[in-house]
Structures are given as structure tokens and as C-alpha cells.
Amino acid sequence: MKEEIPELMDHLFRREAGKMVSYLTKIFGLNNLALAEDVVQDTLCRAMETWKFRGLPDNPSAWLMRVARNRAIDIIRREQRFRTFTPDLTYFVKLQESLLPDGEKLAFENEIKDDQLRMMFACCSPAISADVQVTLILKTLCGFGVEEIASALLVSADTIEKRLSRAKKVFQASGALEEVESIPELQSRLQAIYDSIYLLFNEGYNGSQSEMMVREDLCYEALRLALLLCDHPAGKSPKTYALVALMSFHAARLKGRMDAEGCLILLEAQDRSLWNKELIGRGFQYLDLSAQDGEISEYHIEAGIASIHCMAETYERTNWREILKLYDLLFKVKPTPIVALNRAIAVGQAFGPEKGLIALNAIEDLEKLKDYPFYPAALGEFYRLAGRGKEAGEYFGRALELARNSSEVKFLERKLKTRNERS
Amino acid sequence: MADFVYLYWNRREDQARMANSTPEEKQKITQKWMVWMDGLKKSGNLKDFGAPLEFDGKTVEGAKKVVTDGPYAEAKDIVGGFSIITANSLNEAFELSKGCPILELNGIVEVRPIRPLQGLK
Amino acid sequence: MADFMYLFWNKDGKSKMEKASPEEIQQIMKKWMGWMDALKKSGNLKDGGAPLEMTGQVVHGGKKSVTDGPYAEAKDVVGGYIIVSAKNIQEAVELSKGCPILEGDGMVEVRPVLKM
Predict the structure, then answer these.
(1) Cβ of B60 and C93 within 8 Å?
(2) A42 and A124 within one domain
(3) Ramachandran quadrant class, C13 (left: phi over 0; alpha: psi -120 to 50; beta: rest)
(4) How high is the ipTM of this complex?
(5) How far apart are CA A246 and CA A241, in angstroms?
(6) Chain B partners of A48 at a C-beta cutoff of 8 Å?
(7) Which domains does chain B have, with CATH numbers?
(8) Stretch A72-83: mean pLDDT, rounded?
């Protein structure tokens, strides 16, 4: 045992599980994903049994990877005798050559990054539906357990099991984990990855469950996966950078979005000193990178909007006219009622509540917003600012009826109380 | 080389018989153990002589932390002690265990690999 | 002070970890490390003992018949042990109550080591 027990990095096992599954799947083939998962489970249990008596090894990640690799070598030797499966033998040879003495950094960090990327592309195969893709990513790349995914995505554990077994059926027919470069529909596959990552992020950011910790974890995992994409020639593109920038700006504000009672705090009331400066810095860094070749995607525009919020010292001093310009642009690329709603709010902030109310009432497709509490809430807010407390009260009341979780209820109840205050 | 633990098990029903054995019998058994242990030490296989255990004790069980008297009662047999052995393989450790005097007294030696620090088999 | 051996029993020979998520495994390990560390700091941990593989071989007396795997007369299997030093068996039992194995329905057998 060591003199002082070093603090084990938070979520180390979860993260390493994701790495090991990708890496073992590269060796065993996609059709043997279940085998890879078994080896990982075994490795983590082995680590637990050993470390609890002996303390942490010098390099826990390398320890785990080495044990997983040795298990893989055992299995391949044994199975080869029965010729039951065809592992990637060139990779296997490389694997054996990479045997290193204890404690040394594994020589194939980069290979493992590539494995995770290959896995990401495999999870986003067009043969797999979008909800299954996100589930699969959380399981295989992020190391979440079934129960954890179920609580993060607000569905039953049973549903998650079904999704995973559906995905495994698709994988049954595949052989080796494909090289990213050889994927024929690379661009559309990349778009599916963006969609999954952003969906993952939004589940964390806007998800209605009260368990804050899980939600933040989802956001950071999404960010991690996007950064992984940036490290690979096939994944680094202005759009990827823009997505990283967008998620960084949003993630920077996570700490300020919820009060101690779990009540949502809107931008206008957030304590901006709680925002994560480092993430804002990264946001700007990637926003710069995303501007390289003039491509403008929806992520670019959304990142631009988020950056203006992050730059503003106070809510009142936000550059709303600039934000409105960006929303106009975004509406052209992505003409959804939610974008229209946000655009109308920007109109009201830039040109006064009366103009905001006109813009809100002019939204087409209002039908689609009928269950969305923040539409009546926005109306209520501009009526309040316009000094029309009666209407404000009515709309806040209507929003309250639509509230989807306790955090929204608390927030809208507070709003309702302030209906007669003009500022 | 790898480390193994020998767990020496005594059958519950043999306890009384052992307790009631004559001084002469006890000495004979002790002598056998000493010779066996000495052999392991000389061959370099005995890493830690371990410890013999009293046959009383207490068992704490489950989340309610229920305490019962005596060794774990569900098990028919009782661990009487242990030693740590170094050997080339499980097989070697196991072959060496066959000389253990406990076997002559209807006892049992359980040979278990100790999980290595490096996690390698 | 006297020495006691803690035998850690896993119910049904399993540590119930087959279905646990990586995060859960890490949490349980953290608890173990914390408990062991506290025993060490209080001076009660005499020997850090050893975790045992769930494999092995058993030689039975009499006919010297041999079986594979851990000895499991009662379905339950010893998963590891440590030696603690305590004032008396009561103290040793109290100290064992903090063991995380108990949260998973496991058992700690506390046995006095024969004084030499």
C-alpha cells in the first residue's frame, strides 16, 4: 500500500471503459462487441479487487489497458484454437509488441483515440436509428451503465436494453470496425455524429430531470467526443469546431443556470461570475478556428449568438441587435418555431416590449408551440415589461399549466408573482 | 513466480475429536506440520508463514451488520489458518499442498492465487 | 493488543459486480480504499492481506481428491483477508462494521489469531 492514497480521478472507470471497449472492438471486430464489453467488465472488477487491497497503481489508466489487453491476448489464443472468430490479427500483433514495463505510458494513446473515433462512426451507422445511436454512444463510448442511461434519457431501463440489443443485431452482421477513411458516405455519417453529439448535449442542458450531476456529465461527454473529432483528419472541419465552440459557450453557463433549490435561472438573472471562464475561452478559440474557410453552418450561427451572451457583462448590456441579426440568419438556415420564438425575444430586447409582442404574435406555425411553456412565458414577460400586469398574469398562468417539471414550475410561479413589476 | 494462499480448512465435526486428542497425538501432528513448513521454507516456496487461528470468533453479516458468534456458520468447515506460498504456477502450488498434514486429518487445503499487483496473470 | 484475521466472504461466490456500471464499480472501490486507509491511519491494520482470485484448486483430506475453483461448501467464497490488531474481539468486530462488503450483503468473519 502507498503512503498516501492518491485521489482517484472522478469518473476514471467510466471514461476508461469507453476507451477499452473501442480498442477491444477494433481487435475482436464489431460483431464481438459483447465480448469486448465482458472483457472490460472483468478488467474493472479485477482493478477493484486488487486496488482495494493494494492501493492505486502509479498509472491507473495504463494498468487497466494492460490488463484488458492481456485478457484479449488470452482470448485470442484460446479461441484461435477453435477458429470461432477472426480478430484483426495485424492489430493484434501490434498489440503484443506494445507490451511495456509497468507504469510507463502506453505507446499507443493515439491508436486508442482512433479506435474511439471508429467506434463513433460505427455507432452512427445509417442502419441504426437516431435514438439508438445516442444510447449506443453513451454505453460504448462513454461507459454509462444501462440504469444511468435510462435516468439520463428519461426512459426505462427496459427500453435502453431493447435499443442496445437492436444495435447489437446490426453489428452482428458487421465484421471489423471500419477505417474511418474508407466509409463511403463520410459526410452524411459525420452529420449523424454531430446530431448525436448535440442531442446528447441538449439532453444534458435542457433535459428535465432534476439530477443535476448526471446532466452536467452528459454535456461534458458530448464536448469530449466533439474534441475527439477535432483530433482526426476526417473529423476536423469548420463545422466540428463550431459545434465545440457552441457547446463550450453553453457549458460555461451550466453552473449559473440552477439555484440551490433546483430552480431554473434564466439568463437575465444569472450570476455571471459563476460562468466558467476557461470554457468561454475555449469557445472563442474554436469559434476562431471555425471561421477558416467561410463555411457557415447552423452551429456557427448558434455559437455566435452564445458568444455574444458570454461577452456581455450584464443582461441589459447584451448586444441584442447583433443577436437579432444572427437569429435572422439562423432562421434562414433553420426555420423552426423555436428559432422564431428566440428571434422574437431578441426583437423585444432590442426594440422594446411592444415590438417583441408583435414579433411573437407574428410567428408562423404557432400550433407547434402550443405545448411549449416558454412561448406564453415570453408573451407574459413582454406584457409585464410593457406595464400590462393583467395580461402578463394570464400568460404566466398559461405557461405554468404547461410546465413539464418542478424546476419549470418553480420558475414560472416566481414569474407569476412579479407580473406587476416593470423592471 | 506468483503468490498463492493456502487456506487450511478443518471440518466442523472433527473439531471435538481434535480437541480431545491425546498429548502424544498432538505432538505428532505438530511435528508433521513443522517438518512440512520447514520443507517449504528450505525450497524457497514459503513466502509468509501466515497465522493459525483460534476456533472462536465472530461474524458480521450484511447491511444490517448482524453479529453472530463463531466462525461463519453457513460454511460447514472452518478456516484454521493460512500461509502464503510462492510458486511457478497454480499447479506447482497445488502439488506442494499435497504434503500438508491437515489432509491426513480429514482437513482441506484450498489453494488460491493472490491477485497480482500488476493485474497480470 | 491482539491480532485478528478478517475473512471477507462473498455471498454466492460473487461480488455482485457483473451488472454494475463502471461508475458504480469505482464508487465501491473508493469506499474500500477509504476504509482500508482509515484502518491504516488508526494503526489497526497489521497486514494489508491479499485479494484472492476466484479460481484455485482444493485438496480434500482422506482420499486427497481434488476439485477446481475456490472451496465453496456453502456457495460462499472467501474473496480476501487482512490482519488487524485490536484491543479485543469487540473492538475488532466494531472496526469490521465499516467494511463496504457488508453493503453488498457480504460477510466479515473476525477470527483471533493464535498467540505464539
Answers:
(1) yes
(2) no
(3) left
(4) 0.85
(5) 9
(6) none
(7) 2-113 (3.30.70.1060)
(8) 78
